[in-house]
Amino acid sequence: MKKSALLLLLALLAVPVSMFAQSKKDVAAAKEVEALERQRFEAQVKKDYTVLEKVFADDLVYTHSNGHQNNKQEYIQSIRDGKSVYDKIDVEALNVRAYNDGKAAVVNGTITIYQPNKPDGTPNIAHLKYVVVQVKDPKKGWQVVLWQSQKQPEAKS
């Protein structure tokens, strides 16, 4: 009796672990999306419109840290027009969780954005937490469909 009770207990403990274990496709997708996130930030700095056109879905919704929203065309145009300028973007934390056998991913992270100095010459630095949802289109590959960021308070010395 003790042996069967122990086996039942072990079986019950194993169920939750197996329910939440990622598939091999999810693990591979998470690694791929992490690399693509870094590539996307680099493309924003370098104004690589070819990459940006590819990585943003046509139905992108980007909610900036100030609450303003852009679609894909508006956001890319803001980079072209010099309204969104990035000197450097440092990725400080990045977590990717993939779902549905590597067809969707949720990304959350922390970045620091360095922009041109303010008119008074002080540095223009933004510390942001952000969330991104990417989906894998069979023809276009991974694309950002939702991006939202939130400013974080300045670290005090």
TrEMBL record:
Residues 33-144 form the DUF4440 domain. Keywords: Signal. SUPFAM superfamilies: NTF2-like. It holds the Pfam family DUF4440. Residues 1-21 form the signal peptide. It comes from Hymenobacter gelipurpurascens. The keyword Signal applies. This is DUF4440 domain-containing protein. The lineage of its organism: Bacteria, Pseudomonadati, Bacteroidota, Cytophagia, Cytophagales.
